[in-house]
């Protein structure tokens, strides 16, 4: 009786050991499958504009377990992206195969950068610093004339003047929203704003009626993008929809003035950019033998009617669909 009980007890122990070994073997095989078969070997990145695919991979796959496709998929279905990756709005992981994943990213929009202390400070639509580096990213306008304090990534732009901070962020945001990409956004000592493009300049003045100015600039600029000159929108309002365009070299030189302008042409007594000033030496307005003022256009046509608008052969005002340029005053008149 006692011997039979001992044999049964040994048999149960043996079965228990076999079961335990089987479980361990199963766990080992599972681990090999999970950490071997599901080890990421190929990564696709989509949705990135500002950051490279390698930069996105480093951000998203930063911890030691992130090389596993199951773990990575699980992690970003639960992670708080704002805490994990403050530079991105959303991250989605798509498993294409056990060894291959696709990373979908939705970046926070960078709307401008300011150069300071040899580095470029990039910020988003809320004025939050997203990056501080020496890298120059394409498709992001530079902002000049603004001094920064101590820069902290993920902190607000350190601009002491709160009104200037608001102007910088608002203008950069509006330009981005309307897909207008100047080479440079400049703020002068009075916080008046100017946009510098490859061939021309747009004077916006102070932060007044800025939304109206930029929305109308979106309609105007395609028609003047290849023209050399300066578009003055300082006094532009919703009620008075007149912008003055002065032909000439509108590019900024190292002194901050527009090339091809004399001192009297570039500044008025108030220090602001003057409107068009056709002088006798300009070759457009001169005097005939009788002493009467006459106007000569680019084609060599001469007229002494200094009030006539720009008319076509049919007697109608020539328009581009948005407005027309009066050749005698240089004013761009919206329809």
List the topology elements.
Elements (H helix, E strand, L loop, with lengths): L1 H36 L4 E5 L6 H8 L8 H10 L2 H4 L3 E10 L2 E8 L2 E7 L2 E6 L4 E5 L8 E3 L17 H16 L6 E4 L5 E4 L3 E6 L4 H15 L4 E4 L9 E6 L15 H4 L18 E3 L5 E4 L5 E2 L19 E3 L5 E4 L1
Parallel strand pairs: 1-3, 4-7, 7-8, 10-11
Antiparallel strand pairs: 2-3, 4-5, 5-6, 8-9, 9-10, 11-12, 12-17, 13-14, 14-15, 16-17
Describe the protein in words.
The protein has 335 residues and is an alpha+beta fold. It has three domains: 66 residues, membrane protein fhac (Ubiquitin-like (UB roll)); 61 residues, no CATH class; 157 residues, no CATH class. Helix content is 28%, strand content 25%. It contains seven helices and 17 strands. The strands form three sheets. Strands 6-5-4-7-8-9-10-11-12-17-16 form an eleven-stranded mixed beta sheet. Strands 1-3-2 form a three-stranded mixed beta sheet. β4 and β5 form a beta hairpin. α5 crosses α6. The longest helix has 36 residues. The chain is elongated and about 130 Å long. About 7% of the residues have low confidence.
């Amino acid at each position: 009786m006692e011997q039979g009980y001992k044999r049964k007890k040994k048999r149960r122990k043996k079965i228990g050991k076999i079961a335990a070994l089987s479980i361990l073997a199963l766990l080992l095989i599972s681990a090999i499958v999970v950490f071997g078969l599901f080890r990421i070997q190929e990564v696709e990145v989509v949705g990135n504009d500002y950051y490279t695919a390698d930069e996105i991979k480093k951000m998203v796959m930063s911890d030691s377990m992130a090389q596993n496709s199951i773990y990575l998929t699980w992690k970003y279905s639960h992670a708080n992206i704002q805490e994990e990756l403050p530079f991105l709005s959303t991250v989605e992981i798509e498993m294409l195969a056990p060894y291959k994943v696709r990373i979908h990213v939705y970046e926070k929009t960078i709307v401008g950068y300011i150069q300071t202390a040899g580095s470029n400070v990039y910020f988003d639509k809320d004025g939050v610093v997203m990056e501080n580096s020496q890298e120059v990213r394409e498709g992001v306008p530079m902002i000049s004339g603004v001094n920064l304090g101590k820069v902290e990534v993920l902190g607000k732009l350190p601009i002491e003047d709160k009104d200037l901070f608001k102007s910088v962020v608002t203008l950069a945001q509006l330009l981005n929203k309307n897909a207008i990409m100047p080479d440079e956004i400049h703020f002068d000592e009075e916080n008046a704003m100017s946009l510098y493009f490859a061939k021309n300049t747009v004077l916006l003045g102070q932060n007044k009626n800025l939304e109206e100015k930029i929305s109308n600039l979106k309609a105007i600029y395609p028609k003047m993008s290849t023209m050399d000159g300066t578009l003055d929108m300082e006094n532009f309002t919703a009620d008075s929809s007149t912008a003055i365009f002065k032909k000439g070299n509108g590019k900024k030189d190292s002194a901050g003035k527009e090339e091809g302008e004399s001192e009297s042409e570039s500044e008025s007594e108030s220090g602001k950019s003057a409107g068009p000033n056709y002088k006798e030496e300009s070759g457009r307005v001169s005097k005939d033998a009788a002493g009467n003022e006459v106007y000569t256009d680019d084609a060599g046509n001469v007229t002494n009617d200094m009030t006539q608008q720009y008319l076509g052969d049919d007697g109608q005002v020539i328009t581009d669909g948005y407005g027309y340029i009066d050749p005698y005053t240089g004013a761009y008149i919206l329809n």
